């Protein structure tokens, strides 16, 4: 008799859009930080060449923007989830859950990206407005 139909309601759409905005903004902000030469100086200590800083920055900024707009969200989230796994296992070495080098924040971003991969862009997205983009590419 009492069924929860949140998925079909506007609440689901607003919350999903909010999740996409938070994920996108987080990656865009962190992506722009990677253009800073100071950050590039830290990269060799993580075992990553300094020349990779602009590529990693773009790999966070472009998908972050796509997630906010709602185009190619699943592909963009897959790329960002891969980056977060690299942050957890390569940079932070999955040594401590909390603290200075803790992987708590990257793990939360990984989980949020997995949610976008599973759910898709939602109804408040450019993909939904266009309606010609195949579901796999949304």
Automatic annotation (TrEMBL):
<dbReference type="GO" id="GO:0005886">
    <property type="term" value="C:plasma membrane"/>
</dbReference>
<keyword id="KW-1133">Transmembrane helix</keyword>
<feature type="transmembrane region" description="Helical">
    <location>
        <begin position="14"/>
        <end position="32"/>
    </location>
</feature>
<feature type="transmembrane region" description="Helical">
    <location>
        <begin position="79"/>
        <end position="99"/>
    </location>
</feature>
<dbReference type="InterPro" id="IPR032808">
    <property type="entry name" value="DoxX"/>
</dbReference>
<keyword id="KW-0812">Transmembrane</keyword>
<protein>
    <submittedName>
        <fullName>DoxX family protein</fullName>
    </submittedName>
</protein>
<keyword id="KW-0472">Membrane</keyword>
<dbReference type="Pfam" id="PF07681">
    <property type="entry name" value="DoxX"/>
</dbReference>
<feature type="transmembrane region" description="Helical">
    <location>
        <begin position="52"/>
        <end position="72"/>
    </location>
</feature>
<dbReference type="InterPro" id="IPR051907">
    <property type="entry name" value="DoxX-like_oxidoreductase"/>
</dbReference>
<keyword id="KW-1003">Cell membrane</keyword>
<feature type="transmembrane region" description="Helical">
    <location>
        <begin position="105"/>
        <end position="126"/>
    </location>
</feature>
